[in-house]
Specification:
The chain is mainly α. The chain has twelve helices and no strands.
Length: 296
């Protein structure tokens, strides 16, 4: 349980958190990493404690209602997050939800997770395409912004909302290794571990996963980053209210960036990038299937 929690905490911070904080890091390259870390840490602690208080000690925001606590923990429960750590080191943006939770969930719940995640990918791609096609008529995202301070402030607010919403989805990937009702002491340990992991991630400016963000058009511009984060948060909020079935936020993120790329670039330039990102998602899904099969 302890090893699984440690690996899951590292992989969720190092792999998944870049989805929500990647554009924030890219567009704030001139700021010290400690400042960015402090801001993200405040949001993390508030969200963590808020979930603990509102859900009777459950930090997963109800995402584990359909997935019981494993008793006892076995070797395959640790292998899943360990595999994710390895994949993270290679810069592959795989889904921690499938890779970690699939080992604990029943086949019926896994099926619901797949359907919800594929739907999230499709909705994110379609909505991003429509939004950025419309924005392209009235807004040149690469042009200098007149009110830079205003957009910087909006980005910090938007990133805070997005990061908190994302945590309400993905904290389940860590909490699955913990009792469903945490003591205050365990909550403090979780907060310390996650804040430390965030510090490591910010110190390395997102690590290898950050390349997924940097290679997309205009993600270093504060205005583009703010708009991306706003619509990502909106999609996650909608799907959070649809049901308490866990879903892959990674797939939503990749779908959002793919739809945006199709809207702002020629298709011949976009297909190779989108295909590469999608293939990396499928690698994570394939690894999940192999681990679940081995566990059975």
């Amino acid at each position: 349980m302890v090893l699984g929690f440690g690996f899951a905490a590292y992989s969720v911070v190092a792999n998944d958190s870049v989805q929500t904080l990647g554009t924030f890091i890219a567009s704030n390259g001139g700021r010290g990493w400690c400042v960015l870390w402090l801001g993200a840490s405040v949001v993390l602690v508030v969200t963590l404690v808020g979930g603990w208080l509102m859900n009777g000690g459950d930090i997963s925001y109800g995402r584990l209602d359909l997935i019981p606590l494993a008793e006892p923990f076995r070797w395959q429960h640790m292998v899943a997050p360990l595999a994710l750590v390895v994949l993270t080191r290679f810069g592959i943006p795989v889904s921690t939800t499938f890779l970690v939770l699939s080992v604990f969930a029943s086949s019926a719940v896994i099926g619901e997770m797949l359907v919800k995640s594929f739907l999230g990918y499709a909705v994110a791609m379609a909505s991003a395409f429509a939004v950025w096609r419309g924005l392209g008529v009235v807004l040149d995202e690469s042009a200098p912004v007149v009110h830079d301070r205003m957009w910087t402030g909006l980005q910090w607010v938007t990133t805070a909302v997005l990061f908190s919403t994302w945590l309400s989805h993905d904290l389940a990937n860590i909490a699955v290794y913990l009792p469903r009702e945490l003591s205050f002491y365990t909550l403090v340990v979780c907060a310390v571990v996650l804040v430390s992991g965030l510090g490591f991630m910010f110190y390395h400016r997102g690590g290898r996963i950050q390349r997924i963000v940097l290679e997309k058009t205009g993600t270093r511009y504060v205005r583009s980053a703010t708009i991306i984060d706003f619509f990502y948060a909106l999609v996650l909020l909608v799907f959070r209210e649809v049901s308490n079935v866990p879903m892959s936020t990674t797939w939503v993120f990749v779908g959002l960036l793919a739809g945006r790329e199709f809207a702002v670039k020629r298709q011949g330039q976009v297909f190779p990038v989108v295909a590469k990102d999608f293939s990396k998602m499928m690698v994570g899904l394939a690894v999940s299937v192999v681990i679940v099969w081995a566990a059975g």
